[in-house]
């Protein structure tokens, strides 16, 4: 909980700078570059996140690796995280920043789980339907999970719509177990 509050506080600070400079999209893209680089080059992430690596080495690495790819204020933000020893919070900060930027742009991310991959037309139709319901532009993040058997599970923020076959079967089972045999017209 404290870590997420910390990440939100740093994300809000960066968001305010980006909004002031009218660069919400640009900063989000630059943070995406940082995130992708750290994922692709695990050694770099290890160096950046390791507590025994000297701060000067971390700062020099950030400047050399990301200096030409990001604006000065984004690089300075990354250096500030190192100075405050908060670099391990960077993935959470990036996630929080995206949420703040999306909220400002009236965009909601929907986590969609299906048993089989959705066709592009189905994705567009689902996004349009969810957009109509929420009043926001919807960005779908889809994943496939065969354990739901069929149907779709949608999570937008803290709202969950579970239309999976597994859930429907569980509901039916619970209803059947609650129903007394004599109430459905069966006699002994």
Automatic annotation (TrEMBL):
Location(s) in or outside the cell: Cell membrane; Membrane
InterPro entries: ATP_synth_OSCP/delta_N_sf, ATPase_OSCP/d_CS, ATPase_OSCP/dsu
Keyword Transmembrane helix: no
UniProt-listed Gene3D superfamilies: N-terminal domain of the delta subunit of the F1F0-ATP synthase
Keyword DNA-binding: no
Main location per the UniProt record: membrane
Membrane topology: Peripheral membrane protein
Function comment: This protein is part of the stalk that links CF(0) to CF(1). It either transmits conformational changes from CF(0) to CF(1) or is implicated in proton conduction. F(1)F(0) ATP synthase produces ATP from ADP in the presence of a proton or sodium gradient. F-type ATPases consist of two structural domains, F(1) containing the extramembraneous catalytic core and F(0) containing the membrane proton channel, linked together by a central stalk and a peripheral stalk. During catalysis, ATP synthesis in the catalytic domain of F(1) is coupled via a rotary mechanism of the central stalk subunits to proton translocation.
Family per similarity comment: Belongs to the ATPase delta chain family.
Annotated HAMAP family: ATP_synth_delta_bact
Name of the protein in question: ATP synthase subunit delta
Organism: Anaeroselena agilis
Lineage, opening ranks: Bacteria, Bacillati, Bacillota, Negativicutes, Acetonemataceae
């Amino acid at each position: 909980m404290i870590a997420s509050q910390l990440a939100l506080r740093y994300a809000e600070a960066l968001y305010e700078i980006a909004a002031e400079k009218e660069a919400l999209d640009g900063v989000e893209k630059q943070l995406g570059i940082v995130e992708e680089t750290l994922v692709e080059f695990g050694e770099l992430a290890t160096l950046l996140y390791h507590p025994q690596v000297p701060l000067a080495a971390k700062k020099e690495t950030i400047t050399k690796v990301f200096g030409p790819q990001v604006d000065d204020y984004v690089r300075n933000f990354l250096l500030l995280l190192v100075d405050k020893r908060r670099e391990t919070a960077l993935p959470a900060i990036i996630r929080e920043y995206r949420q703040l930027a999306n909220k400002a742009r009236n965009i909601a991310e929907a986590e969609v789980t299906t048993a089989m991959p959705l066709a592009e037309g189905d994705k567009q139709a689902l996004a349009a339907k969810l957009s109509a319901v929420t009043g926001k532009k919807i960005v779908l993040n889809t994943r496939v999970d065969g354990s739901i058997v069929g149907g779709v599970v949608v999570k937008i923020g803290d709202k969950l719509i579970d239309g999976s076959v597994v859930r429907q079967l569980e509901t039916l089972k619970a209803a059947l177990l609650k129903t007394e045999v004599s109430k459905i017209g069966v006699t002994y």
